[in-house]
Amino acid sequence: MKHLLSAKDLSHDEVVMVLDTAEAMAATQRQAVKKLPTLRGKTVVNLFFEDSTRTRLSFEAAAKRLSADVINFSAKGSSLSKGESLKDTAQTLQAMGADAVVVRHSASGAAHLLAHAGWIDAPVLNAGDGTHQHPTQSLLDAMTLRRWYDPTSPGGADGSPAPRGRDLAGARVIIVGDVLHSRVARSNVDMLAALGAEVTLVAPPTLLPVGMENWPCAVSYDLDASIAELRPDAVMMLRVQRERMSAAGGGFFPSPAEYARAYGLDLARRRAMPDHAIVMHPGPMNRGLEITAEAADDPRSRIIEQVGNGVSVRMAALYLLLADEGNQL
């Protein structure tokens, strides 16, 4: 595989390989000298058409810790704001000698177009395209869950690196919220199901996409019933994407207070979860809407750990796609 565009593109064994490599990368980050010479002389371009904090900084940190040179390209203030096409931008990057392009775009399919249109001869890593896919987010979520899910112990693991080859067979994961607009939800359903997890999506009917019959997951409209019946190992809250709702005309739920009451994770719902269950969120969080401050900062919250694991996963992806000794995807 030359590119990383979708969670669906990775087989079970490839996912496990990426996660095992990410654990090895995480181990290097605990050393006194965090930088590796693996990608010295390579140039990674972060091509971001949408605003981002965690994803862009995470990819930048990952590339720099592998000793690659990084060019951050933002649509704002560039020729794109003057009407330059994606094709012309890609050909400019090709002429500059980009060795890999990390792209984030508001249009679903933009990363696939960039990878396969013949405009650029370099690996493309999808950092989020519209409401379609966000594969490295699902990889870092899987890494986080794999560290805390221990099928041999009902009390859960301690967050130490997962044994090599570990998958998530039997893990019960509830993903809650704005599934309709969420590339994170789509990617996680594909990724976690490939690892053997049992995924349940919980949302109001208005925030579920049409045509979910073939998704490898269950669907519920009742968060409290799902927590009580499934006894999940993890509950992942999704950001309510109000900017996409406003563009579509709104009207997806009666009011923020109503949404929070029915689908928000508060301390009471956190306490209803099994003691070992972890809380996850891809960020940024709307505190007080899909999650309260008490639940976000609960001792079982792994939200900050997800951010750290993101650097390790993106180091692994860049290494496996770019390094001569690591090019195995």
TrEMBL record:
Molecular function via GO: amino acid binding; aspartate carbamoyltransferase activity
Gene Ontology, cellular component aspect: cytosol
Residues binding L-aspartate: K82, R183, R239
Q: Which residues form the Aspartate/ornithine carbamoyltransferase Asp/Orn-binding domain?
A: 170-321
* Aspartate/ornithine carbamoyltransferase carbamoyl-P binding domain mapped to chain residues: 2-146
Please give the Gene3D superfamilies that the UniProt record associates with this protein.
Aspartate/ornithine carbamoyltransferase (3.40.50.1370)
Supply the alphabetized keyword list.
Pyrimidine biosynthesis, Transferase
| Top-level EC class | transferase
Instruction: Identify the residues that bind carbamoyl phosphate.
Output: R54, T55, R104, H134, Q137, G283, P284
Q: Which family does it belong to?
A: Belongs to the aspartate/ornithine carbamoyltransferase superfamily. ATCase family.
| Name used for this protein in its record | Aspartate carbamoyltransferase
